[in-house]
Amino acid sequence: GDSVTQMEGPVTLSEEAFLTINCTYTATGYPSLFWYVQYPGEGLQLLLKATKADDKGSNKGFEATYRKETTSFHLEKGSVQVSDSAVYFCALSERSGGYQKVTFGTGTKLQVIP
Amino acid sequence: EAQVTQNPRYLITVTGKKLTVTCSQNMNHEYMSWYRQDPGLGLRQIYYSMNVEVTDKGDVPEGYKVSRKEKRNFPLILESPSPNQTSLYFCASSRGPTDYGYTFGSGTRLTVV
Fold first, then answer.
1. N or C: which end of chain B has fewer CB within 10 A?
2. Which residues of chain B have pLDDT under 50?
3. Chain A residue whose CA is closest to B105
4. Which chain B residues contact residue A36 at CB under 8 A?
5. Interface contact B97-A31, CB threshold 8 A
6. CB B22 within 8 A of CB B6
7. How much of chain A, in percent, has pLDDT values that exceed 70?
8. Residues of B in contact with A45 (CB under 8 A)
9. A42: left (phi > 0), else alpha (psi -120 to 50), else beta?
10. Nearest residue on chain A to B31, alpha-carbon basis
11. Per residue in A43-102, pLDDT tens?
């Protein structure tokens, strides 16, 4: 079945550092890929998405590129802020029979220190 | 404001006492889903619904029921809660298959003692 693997956290960075959170996936077809962010005490929010190979999703300074050859969708940001501290989830979405099957990674906690 | 509303936010109950967690969305989304979030396990799907009166099991459906009588509402029912259902629950909705991400509710933290 489908699966999503994220790097273990927590990831601790100083403000203005470069961020990479790795995400790789296995899927039977051609999934859409997503990054969600969860701030403390809140639900998940869609951060960015890419629906086909080589697409780049971007939002709020975060970027991720759909790499079919390496089955990866790594999240990057050039300069993190304290307000980026949250848990980040990689996910894929694929048609399975007649419905939408969404598979989430286990999440990576990011801590940004001033 | 487009949103998914869950109630209650926090709930402490005793083993065996039936409870319902409500979920409502105002975006006219067809797809709705319930997830539970547990440390180290990420999010696991409990049930989902593709449209009114169409529901099906996710990965961890045991001990839960759902219904979809109206497009906007998708309640989660625990007929006889047990301590292993202590978790953080999220309702989510989506406009359509695959290419659209989910909009999540704020979560319901359930403790069963």
1. N
2. none
3. A43
4. 101-102, 104
5. no
6. yes
7. 98
8. 104
9. beta
10. A100
11. 999 999 999 999 999 999 999 999 999 999 999 999 999 999 999 999 999 877 667 788
